[in-house]
Amino acid sequence: MRRRPQITIDVVAAEAGVSASTVSHVLNGRAATARISQATSERVKNAARLLGYTPNHAARSLRRQRTGIITVLAWRLSSPFFADIATGVRNVAQQHGFQVGVIDAGALDREVEIRALASLRTGICDGVIVATGTHSRRGPATDALLELVESGTPVSLVLDRSPDPSVPAIDVDHLRGSYLATKHLLDLGHRRIAHFTFADIALDAGAPGSQSARYQGYRQAFAERDLEPDPDWLFRGPREIEGGRLMAHDLLERFPEAHNRPTAIAAFNDRTAIGVIRGCYEAGIRVPEDVALIGFHDIPTARYTTPALTTIGHPLIELGEMAADSLFTLIAGGEVAERDRTVPVTLVVRESCGATERPAPKGRGESGRNETGRDESGHDQLGQDETGRDESRPYMDDGRDAMQRVQPGLPLPATEPGEAAGGEGGVTTNTLGGSHA
Questions:
Q1: What is the DSSP letter of 257?
Q2: Which pLDDT tens digit goes with each residue over 85-112?
């Protein structure tokens, strides 16, 4: 007696003229969540009836057997940024009695992420949180992620946009954060503001990804004042701290004369900004006296640089917690109401933009100048008005006016006595460091 061939979900998909994931969504009652039309749903159901398709409940039970483990696939484990996200995931996982495994996705090596996503299809965990920021645009890594979803493994994204209705994602407001950063520098009187970003992604308006969004936010702040940034103020270099150092040297090579050199830098993130501080130090350029600087993300290190880094803050640990909440909803068989969520950002004012004064080192007077009118570093104090302000530099106020003009963001809780969560402007100010979510 000839054995009847097994009718699989792929056979049903071929008969209905749809993908296997569409069949899975329809037959598992997720058609509405996946935004599958009624006509397509009926076509899938008719094909399943015609072929006599019966779900393999034994296989499904094996797939859904709990391991008690969820996995975080992070862009780079050495970054404190992703370590905080993993901490947030762990906080929620512990409440559910789960353990957390973490995989380093290899940063710029996309093949590492693709192999990791493929290995997770073996059922070694009950769900995956992907924090690589690479899935807002289609490519081999996104294809591998969707194959993982089709295998039945719940997936949640963080710092990304969703590539599929079945995959919830949460991200920060990159465009508004960059807008607030650039607006703050413009409010302080700067007009020549450099934008430091990376060389591997398109910056066109509408292009996916955080790099394009932040560049558009930078341009938006200029456009609001009927200004146009000079294309020569855009610098693109390698990622990581070293990229910031190299771009600082590139700026000085492109603008060897101070009279037309950008007086401020909006760096893509805090690690880039830390590299800028080093590069400026190597070149004898002072931050913020010669060039103001602002970063993005408010990583813990930002408050300990010299000068302390002005930056754009947003929740870090909470991002991981929110992504984990979504994942456990999927693991329990529920649906996440919002496919894409965006958390707001806030301006954190410290020292590197020149809006606050740095504490005077021990042994100096209040002004830090000696009796000859020279400061302790040997710089002449010529060309200053009666207030001690250098007339050749853009006016930099104490930050109060600028902070009142910044639009509301998400105030971060103060972590030290004396920190002010800047009222109406959603700004946190601290000369020694700022708040960190």
A1: S
A2: 999 999 999 999 999 999 988 665 678 8
